[in-house]
Predict the 3D structure of the following.
Amino acid sequence: MAATIKDIARRTGLGLATISKYINGGNVLPKNREAIEEAIRALDFKVNETARNLKTRHTGYVGLVMPALTNSFIMQIIQQIQLQLRANGYGTALYCSAPGNEEIRRQTELEAIDFLLQKGVDGIINLPQNEDGVHLLKPLELGIPVTLIDKQIPELADRVSSVMIDNVGAARAATDELLNAGHRNIVAFFHGETNYTGRRRAEGFMDALRQRGYPVDSERVVFMGGLGRGSSVDRIREKLRQYQPTGVFAANSGLTSRVLEALELEDLRVPDNVSVVGFDGVGIEDGRRIKLYSMLQPTEQIGTTAAQIMTEQLHFWAKGEVFPPQVRTLPATLFVGNSIRRI
Amino acid sequence: MAATIKDIARRTGLGLATISKYINGGNVLPKNREAIEEAIRALDFKVNETARNLKTRHTGYVGLVMPALTNSFIMQIIQQIQLQLRANGYGTALYCSAPGNEEIRRQTELEAIDFLLQKGVDGIINLPQNEDGVHLLKPLELGIPVTLIDKQIPELADRVSSVMIDNVGAARAATDELLNAGHRNIVAFFHGETNYTGRRRAEGFMDALRQRGYPVDSERVVFMGGLGRGSSVDRIREKLRQYQPTGVFAANSGLTSRVLEALELEDLRVPDNVSVVGFDGVGIEDGRRIKLYSMLQPTEQIGTTAAQIMTEQLHFWAKGEVFPPQVRTLPATLFVGNSIRRI
DNA sequence: GAAAAAGAACGAAACGTTTCGCTCTTAAAA
DNA sequence: TTTTAAGAGCGAAACGTTTCGTTCTTTTTC
């Protein structure tokens, strides 16, 4: 059907090995090179990647293991990674968790790795749900490079790369905005207590308070692990009623949207009743009278960097060398909205 | 390194062919079956998909060719397709256009097909940018099944499947909402004139007017082809000033967000000054005082259906049979907001 | 101009499966 | 029982590359 290297060999009268050499950029006599090129054009030859993969034991695919596609942060990262990967000739094998609770997401992640390993991928880029990194042991053992996004896994620090923002700094900056406007009664919402990103951002929040000598009330540092959308909105409403904060900080996109919902249900106005700083651009959409202050992550850069690290790793790996794991921490930026009232 | 079929054969004393047969679900003597299973467990054998692919000339990947990931409609579709595909054992090779103007998107789509064809995919699911379907000729020629999302390509109607909503009906329903509330001066914004989806929705809009005997003013049926974000917002503002509509219909998510921006810049309030119906859930986010009426597409169903059709096609194809192309038209639903004022 | 060194080309053996055509058992039919 | 038919098992040849070790050709060096 499609032309093979054999056809080229036959047509040019050269040997298989020579054709292969040419294809892979080796040196060939000028007249032979011309003959080969002519034949390739005439027969519309394309190398059969599958056959090549069988020999070289790699596949040209990078597995991208992500949570459910529920927010624009994840979406932009995926877009960017995929863009960069293909610019380097790699395909992107996407695997997203089904939406669901933490347990399900963790489980799906295990399946994701198995699935991709079985299909065959050269590397894995992952925004991890299993914070202990159990799911990465198998790929690592198989010598498959892993790059993490958004999180670090201490246990695996010397074996995997990560790309993320300065979470502590970002949360501190966000908190400072409220503090600068005179707010003292601030309630802040974070991911689950077991969540790396959540913990780091909580640290940043508390840092900001301590730095100015304000007390940290642990009741006002709220971790929202393992709650469904409905119950987390309820939880937020409780906190709002109980502490009547003048300022609220929501440490990720999901929480920001839940905070908005809770505020709405509690009939509290932003910024008249409550000042709000959110995350990842939720609440800054067009046509809103009130746009939230929001910490924006440099998604393009995160994606590009992750993919670049992966490509480098892969190149090293192809040469049989080991690649020292990289950790890149990028700064987040503040979107200035009108959701903060000076008091 | 990893165990192969040969190792299993050696260990069990059986022939290669027998092991292969077992793996592919053939009949084997009970005692042999046990022996094989034991060996597989003991050696942790996994079939080498690459080798299998070389023989069977397929890859277990479906290419997903999508526009840039800029809205939740696309995102949800991708999520769902990928979910369904993997449930059937297929990997998802994602390829998204770089963001950019129409020309670029069309070009990227050509590249996407080439890239995926070269990498090797068994089928292609595509939300097409090239409305004439030129990019699909090559895969079709190669016998690779294609399923379209969101659009139909008349020229290829007998060779590709499509899954989409009833665009005419959806636009008509949206328009009816404005009409029912007493609006007569309505300006409606659509994709480019050359865009299938845009044209169908424009039809629906005009249908709704005609059905009640109202005149259709072509100046109020605005196609926004080939404009960047900035200039399309300007265009909308012009129209708003010129015709001072009491009602506006935005026929997709991008346009809805642009309309919101334009309204904001023109200092027009929804619904006090202008009533609005949008698309794809833009403007119904939490924490908005005013939520738009919005036509919602059944993204889950679209994605699942597309992936299912693809899997069926692939199964037929594997048996050497031809699969009659399917066209599925799904209904959209209306989200009832508070963005319409009765007049 | 001969010897040595370097550069190209080559044939054959992998890589790990599936599958074809055949032989050998075993069960069913007579 | 014998004959037939069906069921399992098997070896060998693919699938389209890459790569190793070798031979052949050309260039360099003395």
Q: What stands out?
A: The radius of gyration of chain B is 26 Å. Chain B touches chain A through 48 residues (CB under 8 Å). DSSP finds twelve helices and twelve strands in chain B.
